[in-house]
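Minutes, project check-in
Item: structure for the 576-residue chain
Input as provided by the requester:
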Amino acid sequence: MPEPFAAARRQSLNSLATKIIFFVFLSTFLTALAVSWISIESTHRFLREAIDQRFSALLQSSASRVEAWLSAAQSDVGARAGAPALRAIAGSLRSGTDGGETRKALDLAASGPKLSALRGLVLLHPSGAVAATWGDPGTLPPELAHNSGALVEPDLQSARTSSGAPLVLASAPVRGADGGVVGVLVAVLGTDELGRVLSGGGEEAQTRISLVGADGLGITGTELAAGPSCSTAEAQGSGGDAVCDENPGAWSEIKLPPPPPAGRAVSDYQKPSGERVIGAARSLARLDWTVLVEEPFDQAFEPVLSVVTRIFVTDLVIVLLFSFLAYKITAAIVRPIEALSDGARRISRGELDLEIPDTRGNDEIGLLTRTFNDMTRKLRKNQSEIEAAIHQLTVQKHELERANEQLSQLSITDGLTKLHNHRFFQDHLTREIKRVQRSGDPLSILLVDIDDFKRLNDRLGHAAGDELLTRIARIMDESMRASDLLARYGGEEFVVLAGNTDLSGAATLGEKVREAVAEKSFLLDETMRLEKVTVSVGVAQYKGDRKAFFQAADRALYRAKAQGKNCVRAEGDGVV
């Protein structure tokens, strides 16, 4: 970085513009911080109140659904206790005799519409002794067996199996024809479906709802491991003696929330697992159970975090916006001077492609800016004229080079056949002779002449003759190797210089050329008649004398013409 520019940057840190921008930034930041704190506190308080209302409503609806489920169970056992089959055996129940009628009557009472939670039925004598069972009644509380007289009115009790599985015991008195109590019918109900009853329609899927017994152990819940189900059909299929395979570890102790603060319905506490939650509890009216609603603290207050994020982003945008406005205002004051200073430095380095923004003012800075721009425009105009002149000279130079290149190419190319011409062949022959004299490699020449060309040219015209020369030149060029040189020697005569090729190889190449031409048919005039054209080839190998080299090939070509044309002859008298 140039020293003057660095000094200007260091000075700008202490400029008035920098101080104004810093002041605006600080004041905006402090204001945004205060507004954010007030907004977050208000949002947190509002969310607390919303959570209190939501948890209270959730407790009310969950407790109501459980109470309704218990009422339905009580009504079901009351209806079964009033079954005609049980009323018909009132005498047997009073006397304590059983001739097999009691079990049949209980089976008839159980044969009505089944509750999905029904695990079994127990029929008790007035003395409390078990008269008959159906299904899998599980374990009965001891006080039920010893105080059945207290169960004249419908009753509900909670119990657990020996493995800890929760049960509900719904009892109802069995009355005889005279209205007196002759026994007690107890329905043993599983709690598997209470998890679905608690969750309702699943609208609170993120909130845990649990039922807790008086012993502090879980009954069921939307996220608790429920005990295994044991259907009535399974119990009946095993003769009423089926036992469920229960998991004693599925009903663990549940910590109830502490009392909420005054004026609040929800408590904030930590579970034994270390998880921080918010929760509320409510006792049921019909049983000594408690409905517990819990939700992870972070999840419940996630809206606050979302609000905090939005407030932070909004504050950041406000701070940046006001800082940008402060920068624009201050820059409008000092920018023209800085632009003029920077422009002067760039012109001193030879950078003329610049334009200082016009302030449109009539003060000294505006006049100086316009004068500066006029000066740079004149400098650019002069520079553009110089560059245009240089460009024109460059273009003319390139055009001259291309013209020279084209002239050079035309000087060595036959204009009709586009092959190399006689001049180029002679120059190339000189270079090849020097090369083979150093290396000792063989060098051969082929003279190719179109047979009866003058007759064809006279008969068909010069245009057809030129077309024939062009097409035969193309055929011969396609027959050449990459290392061979094909040139038009003059008239209808062509020459091939074959490097690294002895006399035999050159004769083979000549035969290849002759056959390629002889195989073609040419349409040369408007009569649409195909013409066959042949060539004669003379071959010779270089033996140290350039003149003798060419004369030997010419003599070989003469012999080919004299011996019938359309053939290849090499130096000597042999026929190839």
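Outcome recorded: The first helix runs from residue 3 to 12.
No further action items on this chain.
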